[in-house]
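Standup notes, structure subgroup. Blocker cleared on the NDP input:
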Amino acid sequence: MTRIIDGNEVADGIRSELESCVETLESAGVTPGLATVLMSDDGASETYVSMKQRACAELGIESVHAELDPTEPTDVLLERIDDLNADPAVHGILVQLPLPDHIDDRAVLERIEPTKDVDGFHPENAGLLVAGEPRFKPCTPHGIQRLLAAADVDTEGKDAVVVGRSNIVGKPMANLLIQKADGGNATTTVCHSRTADLGEKTRQADVVIAAAGYPELIDGSMIGEGATVIDVGVNRVEADTEKGYELVGDVEFESAKAKADAITPVPGGVGPMTIAMLLYNTVKAASIQADVPVSLP
Ligand code: NDP
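Run returned:
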């Protein structure tokens, strides 16, 4: 029987363990605060931001929301980030991606004060991760590491294949998998759009992490018997539903499930973990900035 890894259940566990950290901070007079910055008319981005705000409210994290007209220039966004950097009630800053095409993404991510960079995308935090001393692990890869641990998948000595090399998922995921640390020690291959024979790489993997953003790119014929399959993809495909679309992953679920030992569904797999680890990083940021130690889960 293939195990379905339930991201909602694992995320709920982490969120409830974070409650005592928030209580510790509160008793020291610190309410953790997260600023969300939205500069997009895209419905999916708006949904993600409101889900993050709701999750903060449930845990007792204060949300500050900055919404900018998507036609504004980069400088206006940078000024807003400067204000949030200077605000002592804001411990974490999350700029919802993607930003409009005319915005200089790099300049924006580099402007966030590194100790408030709860996404972990600032070069200082990316560097710390590569050096094996992570301050804020990027939320999605960190969430996947926690999912694997919760499913008793020990990555040590295993062959892992990450499909995708973006700065927000693929690269940090590979960096975590090669760390000489718990949840790492995997022999890791990173595939991308120029990989000559993707199926040949994924078939030999004990752990496949699919983060290509391409609907059902990986099917059962590309999965080895008994592998663990983590599907990061969230793709809207046209469908005869009320909304006119449905969400599918980067993995063709049924055929992959027939080969895998364990697999994550979409939705209900990686997505809830991304939000849980954002809460984790926000609590950690508050703890660092207020110099109040907490026992993070
Ligand atoms: P990007 O578009 O930034 O990166 C996609 C990567 O996949 C690129 O490295 C690209 O290669 C590679 N790729 C694309 N097509 C193929 C292919 N046919 N074969 C092999 N590699 C391919 O996407 P993100 O990393 O931002 O996101 C990936 C997916 O994960 C998306 O569906 C996104 O919505 C989802 N996501 C889900 C989250 C969650 O919480 N569940 C959080 C973040 C993302 P190349 O570099 O050569 O172009």
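Discussed briefly. The chain has a mean pLDDT of 97.
Next: hand off to the docking folks.
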